[in-house]
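Let's sit down with a protein and look at its sequence and fold side by side. We need material for that, and I hope you will provide a protein of your own picking. Once you have written the record down, we can walk along the chain together.

***
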Amino acid sequence: MSELAAQNYNRSKIHPQKFLLWIGLASLVMMFAAFTSAYVVRQAAGNWLEFRIPNMFFYSTAVILASSLSLQASYAAFKKNNTGAYKKLLLLAFVLGLTFLVMQYLGWQDLVSIGVELTGNPSGSFLYIISGVHAVHVLGGVGVLFVALMHAYGLSHKVTEKRKLRFELTLTYWHFVDFLWLYLIVFFVLQAS
């Protein structure tokens, strides 16, 4: 194989860690597709409590999307060796991720205040379970962001292939959980209308 052909072959291959992440994300897509399918089937069976989605869930949507934008901007600053912006935007993404989790909890509290409880009607149970499983995945992402912060503040800023890969994996996962929430909130709103 010529040197040029070998370079093109190596460029077209996906890194094994990225490949594993995409397999994991595909399994999460299937899991949430199963959850939302079960929601639709159970809703059609009747005995379904109609209620308005608390505003806190919409506010948390804006927060998690802002977190995604902050992390993307942090990655751009990282690649440009803009250490100050890289660290500050990474910290902002982390804080917004934590804020999203707090807001999810407040949204669940709002549900309780209007009489929608976890063990009550299946409509509420589905909302708690689906949003709760999503929150667990966000919590995992917040843990990864915490590790990224430790690297950002504990190591000197060097743009290496290993660090870029680590950041890209973090970014991909974070964008995934953000857009998964966007899908879920749109799904809940459409099902409630």
About this structure: The chain has a mean pLDDT of 90. The CA atoms of residues 41 and 169 lie 35 Å apart.
